[in-house]
Fold this protein.
Amino acid sequence: MVNPVHLKTLLEVIRTGSFAAAALRLGYTASAVSQQMSALEKDTGALLFERSARTASPTEAAVVMARHAVKVLTDMDALIAAAARTGSTRGHELRLGIFPSLATFALPEMMASPEWQNLGIDLKLSVAEPAQTIQGLRSGGDLDVALVYQVGQGGLAWPTTVSRRWLGDDDFRVVLPESWGIRSGSEVTAEQLAGMPWIMHHPGTPDALVIERLFASCSLHPQVAAWCDDFNASLAMAAAGLGAALVPELAMLNRPAGTVVLDVPEIRLARSIFALLIHEQNVQVRLFLDRLADILGRRSIVPMPTSGPQQA
């Protein structure tokens, strides 16, 4: 009998590319991950990794098994969830804190999917920035789960009593006014942008400090045209020709016409998205977070510009 825990670990190893990275995501040691993969090889009779002194490369059998494991694990969780709902007339209540750009991007797709009704979740939402939703976890009763982001390694603190699950990364992109004459998708250097006006985060905020260090590392000392912590406002100002902006992909769902998105090799930054939980995950919550991670992993890189209304 194959252990489902070992299948989940296999998926994480394939996803992250190494035993050590998978161990970090799952809260195991690298040795424990290696032992689980050895046990899975013994149970299935398949060689899953080509091991050397420093690396363990997945075989074709591992990739095929991982592909089937996704469906198997999803079906198992759905079966348990369905059994838990038997005889119940209402779903499991999930009090969820979520930041605006993630709510705008992911929730419509999730709730429109056929799987949503089968999930059996009665969703109670609080849409706010991470600092506010984390307070809901600290207060011991307002929220069950907070979906937050972190830029770099600092700036956002959460209670030591919560557990954390990484869901994906949200890459920042350089957005310019179309009126500047640079085509969308063009690759430019940071030096080419050095003398241009920029729309920047207010000084002193954790995100601003990370961005300032990143810009300084590539000798980019921007001429500041505006201070702004609202990405929709930054996009609107960029569309109006005021300046360039650094905007995460999730905030560009309704990127306005009049903007272009550039690839600047020296400017690489992402905000990591985490689920913070104060209770042990039940099957419905786990399925909800699995589905959310899947939506984040399949998102298009750069949404097409639109002249429609922007989301808050």
User: Anything to note?
Assistant: DSSP finds eleven helices and eleven strands in the chain. Residues 106 and 112 are 10 Å apart (CA to CA). The mean pLDDT is 83. The first helix runs from residue 4 to 16.
